[in-house]
Every structure is written in structure tokens, then in C-alpha cells.
Design goal:
Two copies of one chain form a homodimer. By secondary structure, the first copy, chain A, is of the alpha/beta class. Chain A contains 15 helices and 13 strands. At the A-B interface, helix 2, helix 3, helix 4, helix 6 and helix 12 of A face helix 2, helix 3, helix 4, helix 6 and helix 12 of B.
Amino acid sequence: MREIELNSREELILEKLLELKKRSGSHSPSVNSLLEKIPEIKFKVDACFLSNPYATQLFLDYFEKEVLKGNKIREMLEYYPSQNNVIAEKLASFIGVDVENVFIGNGAIEIIQAIIHNFTKSKIIINIPTFSSYYEFVKPEVEVVYNKLLKKNDFNLDVESYIELIKKEKPDTIVLINPNNPNGGYLKGEQMFKIMKAARDVENVIVDESFIHFAYENSNYDFVSVTEFISNFPNLIIIKSMSKDFGIAGIRAGYAVMSKERSKLLLENGYLWNSNGLAEYFFKLYTQAKFAYNYQKVRIKYIIETNEFIKQIKQIKEIKVYPTMANFLLIELPEKVDLDRFTLMLLIRYGIYVRNANDKIGLEGNFIRVASRSYEENKYMIKVFKKIFN
Amino acid sequence: MREIELNSREELILEKLLELKKRSGSHSPSVNSLLEKIPEIKFKVDACFLSNPYATQLFLDYFEKEVLKGNKIREMLEYYPSQNNVIAEKLASFIGVDVENVFIGNGAIEIIQAIIHNFTKSKIIINIPTFSSYYEFVKPEVEVVYNKLLKKNDFNLDVESYIELIKKEKPDTIVLINPNNPNGGYLKGEQMFKIMKAARDVENVIVDESFIHFAYENSNYDFVSVTEFISNFPNLIIIKSMSKDFGIAGIRAGYAVMSKERSKLLLENGYLWNSNGLAEYFFKLYTQAKFAYNYQKVRIKYIIETNEFIKQIKQIKEIKVYPTMANFLLIELPEKVDLDRFTLMLLIRYGIYVRNANDKIGLEGNFIRVASRSYEENKYMIKVFKKIFN
């Protein structure tokens, strides 16, 4: 590939973009913010957004039919949604745990905040690179031990040395995102089990399964969740965003599975009406057998297409694609590439919005994260990437 | 009025209702929960729900036209909403403060929790009866001083003795709900100002103005908010639910105005994506001049009708109506009335759902809280009440 040169108009937009990014802290600015502040951008593919577009469409089809055509939108907007435990009730039987084990969140991020603020008292081990909120929410008095995932291991966690680190550091909290964000690194069910057994003395074992629906361990594409172990491992706290599987980030729906004592403590301190009417509708739908059946179909379709996307992108010799079990790829670009200019060029010339990963702690180098989107969008991205790096 | 006798079918429903209420904690079960669990109930008027139905209709008209017909619903549900400070920006200029003074909440209740958990360290004075979350969220190590509002004063706050109490107790937090819930007692702007001056040494002066849009101090129905004093009184924290003015409780929209330091501290610890796509739309709409103009019209219409409702109910000699500047009435029933049976009778025979206030701390006796609703609904309630208490 040639070096990237921007024209003066593009340089101006770059300035605006960097300013906006600065204001967004450690998360990418949303498409809405971008469109509002930089109307020059013509979006084609939002490959920053980590979701299954087919599941979004499935949800929207139901929403259109049941809520809009069924004239249910008024009551959904007007009345107080049900309280946390009422929504938890349906979900609990669907995922096979007791209602007291379930905590409904206003998006997974609220749950991360609640857990880190309420249960982490002294020391936390966080694997990096990772989703930044886990270390951002840590209170000042808590010691953070960063466990750096190594590039030479493709950013995969080394289970043995991780267990050694736990024994040595004696943290009260560890965090495992499975598959991990931003690289998609995956720990199999048996590896998770090994860690959980070794971490019996750790008070809080947080397992963030927000991307678990994109992983699988057999030819039926079944995924393995540690949710079922909650009664054997009372220190487990499973966090699940619904925005990844369904692309409904505007609704803010997430949940956690945790010991009854923890969930009780949180609910006694607030979080009473933290869901909105649409999130309540989503969870109702999610736990219906017919919907679950239809969702499983679009889930598998998306995984198969994502695998094809990965395969195609891997053919480009000039870039390195890291192993992933999630719906995104961590890509390392050649050293000579200026990341800010490259991502802007993708956006302004091709309408492709990818995550510039240069602010991720523990990820030194030229990395971008690219989400798998619809078949057509993936095809377009493959074409553009092959053209750029021909 | 005669004593209330329920038939066996009604007694059975009463049992179900009491069970449901027990599970809802210190808040009434929602209409949705009620309808789901007790399908025997035929709702006519939800007089538990403290909102201006005309404002709900106004919002829904815009929503229908702009969002549904404008095909904006997908992006609202799919994408991440803007972050806290982006939404705060528009609101700040609308209410005349700096953006750094504004904190957007997932409903006022999230803000109450955030403030009480983060800023109240040692001692809080809470006037009772009041909205229960204020004392429910207090951490165990904080001392709560309950200032009982006296029945002989019609549950109005005595400003002089309140100031004396502050000087004596030296709390780090005081809470004023203006108008107060559940009685509607109102402190004029000058009384608020007097308290604020006397409470200069109190670290956190929480003023909950969730019902302030229903109050007024002149013939133009202008209301007086203490928001404008934020730069003079850095200890002020103003909390505002939008569910009362607009009846959009399903959306979860609220905000607070506070010192820049406080808001910064909260935002550094989370609350990044605590709004949903619909709440973001609401705030955008709320701050548009044309919408504000239309809202003002339905606000005044509702106040005038509420005043008429109060006047009519006050004519019933057998009950006592307490003075109110909010959109609800605190009503004391004759001693012989069994409250649980009375409210159930209203619900099952007349479809009127009122707030049984027997669980309110500081409110001993036979109290119900009745919301003013639409003109037709108020007319119906007046008829029913006059019939019952002929």
C-alpha cells in the first residue's frame, strides 16, 4: 500500500474527528454524534458497532408487528416499567437459574459499575488489552494489577501463568471477558472451569460473556456459558450485554447472574426502575420459545458469514489478523501506516467506520478493530481492504 | 358513607393485590404488573400515576410524526445513544446553566441513588412523609434525622424550626422536595431562598423539583425553580424527573443540576451511557422552542383543571383534603374506613386506582393520594367520590 496523504478538506475533517474523539473519552463517538458534528461524512458501514445486524432486523420485525401495529407503544412510553425483579423472573427461568440470582441492568455498563463499586474492595486483576470500563470504574483505593496479554501469544490468555498470578497476588476480584474485547480471544469451557476451580478463594470472579453468542465449541454452533455453574461457584458474577447479540444499544438492556446475597445487596440500594419500557419488552420477547428459535437461526447465519469474512480478510498479506471467536477482528496494520489518517481515510473515502484501537492500554502498535456486519457490507469491506492493500 | 363490605370474589382479589403490593416494596405495583397478575381488574382511571396526560399526548403526537412516520425508530433502538455530556449540552443552554453543571439520569431515581451514595457521608435530614427512596438509599453508616411534618400544620414545612434543626444537627445533607410528595406542600421561592442562605454550611442541599411544573406564583402560572441559583450556592443539587410533567415513565428521563465538581466526579465513575435512545430524543424535543411553547399551553390547561378538581373534591365534607401545589391530593378518610378495603373497592367497582398511603413513614392515619388526570377522568372521580361519601 502507498502512504496515506489527505487533502486539505480531509485534514480539516480529521481535526474535527480527533476533537470529537477526545470528548468521548475512551469510547468511540456514536454514529449519531458523528453525523451531527461532521455532516461531511457519508456512512456506508458502521464496523465499529459490534452487533449481529440480522438479529436487529428480527427484533425490529417483531417490534413493528407487536408494538407499533399492536398499538402498544403508548403504554410502553407512558407507564413505569416493571421493577427489576419482575423482569428478572422471566429471564431466570429462560436461562435456568433462580430469579434471586438475576440482576437486570440498564445496559451491561451499569452492571459493571455496580459490581466494581460495590464488591471490589482491595485488589483486582485485569487482563489487558480489554474493555476500558473495567479499570475506569475502579475506586482509587483499589489496587489494579494489569496482566498483559502477550502479542507473541496472539493476545490469548495463558491459563497456567494466569492461575499462578492469582495465587501470588491474592486479589479479591478477577475479570475475564470471554471472548475478549478487542481481540476476540476465547477460553474454552474447560479452560474457564480450570480457572474457576483455581480461583475459589477469589471473592469476585467476573466473567463478561457479552460476546459469547458469537462463540461455539461444536458443529451445532452451541455456545458454552458458565451461567450454569452459579450454584457451585458462588463467587461467579456473569455479565451479559444484549447490545452485541441484538444490536439494540439504544434500548440499554443487560443482565448479570450472581449469588443471591450480591443481587439482594444491589437491589436494596437502588436499581429499582433501571429498565425502560422497551428493555422490558425486549426481555419478554427474548424469553419466548418462538423468538428464541428464530434468533438461533440468524445467530448461526451470522457466525457462518463472519467466519467467511475472517477468511477473506486473512488472505491480505500486508496485515495481521488475530485469532477471534467474537464478531470482530483485531487487525495489525503495517508500521508505516498513520492510524488516525488511515481510519479517517476509510471513513471519508469509503464510508467505513472502524475502531482505531490506539487508545487501548496494553495494545502498543498499529491496531484497528473491525466488526463483521451483513453479508453485503462484509463483501464491500473485503473489496475495499483488498484494494487498499493490494 | 357506609362501611365497606367486600364479597368473596372481591376478598380473593384483595388477597392477590396485597401479595403483589408486598413484592413491590415501598412503591405501588405498576398498572402493567396489576393487569398481568390480576386480570379481573378493569382500569378506568390510573390516579396513582402522577403525570399530566395532555403533555403525554403532546409528546406522543411528536413521536408519531417525527420518529415513527419519519422512520427514525430503527436508529433510535439500534445505535448507542449519545453520552451523558452530549445530551446535557442541549439541556444546559435551555435551562440556562453550563453544560458541566448538568447530569443526565436514567430517571430521577438513578440520580437520587448516585447523590445519596456518593455525597452523603455522615448525617442527612429528611422531612417525612416523603418519597421513600431518599431514606431507602442512605448507606448504613449515615445517620438519618427525620423531621416530621406536622398534621396540625397541614404537613407544611415550618421554615423557622427547620433552620433551627439544621443549625442544631449540622447534617452534611438536607433534602427538600418542592412541592412535596405525598402531600403537595409548597415552599415559595423566597422561603427556599431563606433556607438556602441558612444552609450555606450544609455540604449537600438537595432540592427535588420533580413536581415544580405544577406549581406557580403568579397569574401567568410561572413557576420558580432554584436552578438559577446554582452559581451562588455551589452546595445546591437540583433533581428533576421528567416523568411527572410528561408522563413518560417508560422512557426513564431525569436530570440534575449540581456543581461542576460533583458532576465531574459522578461522570468519572460511570453513568456514561445511562440514557437510552428514546430519552435522548425526548431531551432534544424538550429543548425545542416550538415544543416548549406547545408544552406550556397544555401545562396551564392541566393546572387549571387540577385546581377545579381540588375545589370539587374539597366540597366533600366527610374527607379532608390537604393543601397542594402539585398535581395530586393527599386525602384523609374517616377513621372507620379500612384503607386496604377502600382502595380495593375503588379499583374493583369503579376502576379507579389511587395510592394507598398507609406505608408512608410519618403519615399515621387513613390517607390516600389521588392524582389529577384528564378533565373527563377527573369528572368521573368527582362523581364517584361524591357518590361514596354522599
